[in-house]
Write a structure and sequence with these properties.
about 350 residues, mainly alpha, Formate dehydrogenase/DMSO reductase fold, 2 domains, 13 helices, about 0% strand, transmembrane helix, NrfD_2, transmembrane, Polysulfide reductase, Electron_transfer_protein
């Protein structure tokens, strides 16, 4: 029966071939049915999904993809550099032979906590949205803690930069503690979501971000003019961060293997390419650092590779998270695993 014939039969904008009317109002009729004038009532003559074979109901995503743009992983990187620099500056305070290096660290901490909010605001679209996050302080919310840490550390870093070696204990340690929070809260933030890939890595993400923060800071400092004593300090600080970052990445891959869908999301697509690039750059930076040659070129190459790896790591986490959100079975299997555990 055609749609026009069904209108004459029951007076409804419905074809019995597509649906069945039941209930108290099923027999009601309209006095004047709408004429079939080519689109007065925009109804489908055939349900579009009936003839699609590319997916079914079970292939539909259960979660929305993260809507973050490029500025968010860039903010993650800048926050890591700021946090690592703040901690290193506090450790170097009062050491006359390392005064220049301490000043570099103070400047990087100030720069990171200044550019970071700009990148974050660019993603949010309006400055008022960032300021609104400072209206309340909620200890149970990683975003609230992170917003206050970013704002507070930025002010402390500016004060520390102005005071230099004359900065007091409150400013010095306040900046260091704030830098630790800025470097690590982003890992807690990612893990505190429904995204299956980030959720599975929630115990390792904070450690990954904090160790990568130390490596990122060392990578930037290695590309600056350093004397022999400064180079040794930066090298040791960076190697601790690089070793921690490499250990966390290996642990994450082993953890992902327990849920094949999570492993696939982390290994395939843009996220997989960026993750591989991050590993390659990190390992290459470590190998170059271990070469038995002392030269500014070697140090700068190692710093550049470490920086590239740190940036690729942040973008890999975002892209892999998007891929995991698109796959419904990833979410389902992670939830099943949690229920069984």
């Amino acid at each position: 029966m055609s749609l026009a014939q069904s209108r004459l039969h029951v007076g409804r904008e419905m074809s019995p071939g597509l649906a069945l009317q039941i209930g108290e109002g099923a027999a009601q009729q309209v006095k004047h049915a709408e004429p079939d004038a080519g689109g007065i009532v925009p109804l489908w003559r055939q349900v579009p999904s009936q003839h699609r074979t590319d997916h079914n109901y079970y292939d539909l995503a259960l979660l929305k993809e993260p809507v973050w743009i490029w500025s968010v992983p860039a903010y993650f990187y800048m926050g890591g550099v700021a946090g690592g620099s703040a901690m290193l500056a506090a450790a170097l305070h009062g050491k006359k032979r390392l005064r220049r290096l301490a000043n570099w660290c103070r400047f990087l901490a100030f720069l990171g906590t200044t550019i970071g909010p700009v990148l974050l605001t660019y993603d949010l679209g309006k400055m008022s949205r960032f300021l609104n996050m400072l209206r309340v302080l909620r200890p149970s919310s990683p975003m609230s803690i992170g917003s206050w840490s970013l704002a507070g550390t930025g002010m402390m870093a500016a004060l520390s930069l102005l005071q230099g070696d004359r900065s007091g204990a409150v400013t010095r340690y306040g900046t260091a503690v704030g830098g630790l929070l800025v470097a690590g809260y982003t890992g807690v933030l990612l893990g505190n979501t429904a995204n299956p890939l980030w959720r599975e890595r929630r115990l390792l993400l904070p450690a990954l971000f904090m160790s990568s923060a130390a490596a990122s800071t060392a990578g930037v400092l290695q590309m600056m003019p350093l004397d022999e004593r400064e180079e040794k300090v930066v090298q040791r600080f960076g190697m601790v961060g690089k070793a921690g970052e490499a250990a966390c990445m290996v642990a994450m891959q082993r953890n992902d293997a327990t849920v094949p869908e999570v492993a696939a999301a982390a290994r395939e697509g843009k996220g997989g390419v960026l993750w591989t690039a991050a590993k390659a750059a990190l390992v290459s930076g470590i190998l170059v650092e271990l070469l038995p040659v002392r030269s500014p070129l070697k140090r700068k190459v190692s710093g550049a590779l470490t920086t590239i790896g740190a940036i690729c790591l942040r973008f890999a986490l975002l892209e892999s998270g998007k891929a995991a959100a698109r796959e419904p079975q990833t979410t389902i299997n992670v939830q099943r695993r949690r229920m069984k555990g």
